[in-house]
Design brief:
The chain is built from twelve helices and no strands. It is mainly alpha-helical. The radius of gyration is 18 Å and the shape is elongated.
Length: 209
């Protein structure tokens, strides 16, 4: 177990007894960030996976990648792909529009991605939400699972809201502002806290991507 993970667990157990019990039950440590591929690949994947179950999204993502040599969709190649071919992979018209907007911005240089690792979380959010179909939730997932940022609290995520409602015995699902308020005590280790909350839902109330 990495030292940073041990530090996060020690802190979270100390500040939140409810989360401490969840950590005890889950036990499995979070996976490392996805380092394969490019930032563009990660954003494409995030768009494809929006509002779909993991299995369905995985199938569409695989079919989409199979449209390209070595399963490597580059921005300029996506722009050159017909809507018919993209729909054949299972992509909706809306998501095709999102992928084209992302790809066009990458190709024309208005959305540079190589430097993202040097920006703060808030700067990355501001940088990426200019793309159609990429909102705050999508950027939070990118920060957590691509860049491995340690203190991300995705207040718009329904899984986190549902997990908090169940774990803390709340009468109603917490609103985003409530998630931020309740999760403030987890900082600067909110990402780890959220991962364990997601895992706590695996017995039927939700699922991990």
């Amino acid at each position: 177990m990495a030292s940073s993970h041990r530090t996060a667990l020690s802190y979270l157990r100390r500040v939140d007894p409810v989360l401490a019990q969840i950590i005890k039950q889950v036990r499995t440590p979070p996976p490392p960030p996805r380092r394969t591929g490019t930032h563009y690949d990660a954003l494409v994947r995030a768009i494809v996976y929006q509002q779909l179950s993991g299995k369905a999204a995985g199938t569409i993502h695989r079919r989409f990648r199979e449209l390209y040599t070595k399963k490597q969709p580059k921005a300029h190649l996506v722009l050159a792909t017909s809507d018919e071919a993209l729909r054949g992979a299972g992509l909706s018209r809306q998501k095709i529009g999102y992928l084209r907007d992302l790809s066009a911005r990458v190709v024309d240089g208005t959305l540079p991605l190589a430097h993202l690792g040097r920006l703060s979380d808030d700067e990355i959010i501001e940088h990426l939400v200019q793309v159609k179909g990429i909102g705050r939730w999508t950027v939070h997932m990118f920060l957590m699972f691509r860049l491995g940022r340690p203190d991300v609290l995705p207040e718009l995520d329904l899984g986190i809201q549902n997990a908090m409602q169940r774990a803390y015995g709340l009468k109603a699902r917490p609103k985003p502002k409530d998630v931020l308020r309740l999760g403030e005590k987890w900082r600067p280790h909110a990402t780890t806290a959220c991962w364990y909350l997601w895992r706590s839902l695996e017995n039927g109330d939700g699922q991990l991507d």
